[in-house]
Amino acid sequence: MARIKPQALLNQSKKKKGPSRISISTIVVCNLVVAVVVLSLVTTYRHWSQSDRVLILMNLLCVAFQDTNAVSQQKNYDLPGYADISTSKGLITVELFKDASPEAVDKFLDLCKKDHFKGMPFHRVIKNYLVQAGHSSSSIPIEEWTAKGKLRGRLDTSPKHEAFMLGTPKNKGNNKDFELLITTAPIPDLNYQLIVFGRVLKGEDVVQEIEEVDTDEHFQPKSQIGIISIVLKREL
User: What keywords tag this UniProt record (predicted)?
Assistant: First the structure.
């Protein structure tokens, strides 16, 4: 077998291919791909993280709202829902609209605790219309009173302003002016002048007896009639 000379081996090794080189453009493209992938992962993480935060915040708000609503409902449940109005003509039991007229009911309850209505006279009695208790010195005839509402086009009907409803005049600035009215007939022309916050459950005959008293030309009773006391009740 013939031997290969050293010179021939050297020439043969020179003919072998050297290692292939990676171009700069390929490196740049690879780096860009890696950067895009990393950026996508970071963006996805932030998105889901932000979504989780929003979800947690919404859950916290829902829980807080439910707690507030529960407290409000518990407060309304704890408040008295009825009142016994003792008058010089007899007892009138009323139901209070705690949900429909909460502000008026709260004010009424607060004034009851302060004995605001104790000894309050019925100073206006209008047959087939209403009886009104308060300390007002107003002597405006009913014709003028109702005419104001009619001139303003306030003739809308409302089921809240039917007979034997408990209310108070609107636009009363302080507790001293808080008066009580009990309707004895529907009064649509006073829809915008009264806040109805209750209704008579028992004692309609007492209201009618007050309604039948003799009055002067200003609809003020000739004999003294008034509220003796008011007792608040949670149940009948």
Answer: Chaperone, Isomerase, Membrane, Rotamase, Transit peptide, Transmembrane, Transmembrane helix
d(CA 134, CA 140): 14
Tokens of 203: 């004692």
**CA of residue 139 relative to chain centroid, distance:** 37
**How far is Cα of residue 2 from the mean position of the Cα atoms in its chain?**
110
Question: Is the residue at 116 inside a domain?
Answer: yes
Per-residue model confidence as pLDDT tens digits over 120-151: 999 999 998 899 999 865 545 555 555 544 44
Residues 6+ apart with CB under 8 A from 127: 184, 211, 212
| Dihedral, CA of residue 22, residue 24, residue 25 and residue 27, to nearest 10 | 70
CA distance 77 to 176: 27
Question: Tens digits of per-residue pLDDT, 72-86?
Answer: 445 555 789 999 999
pTM: predicted TM-score of the whole model, two decimal places? 0.63
Both tokens of 77, joined, read 């449940």
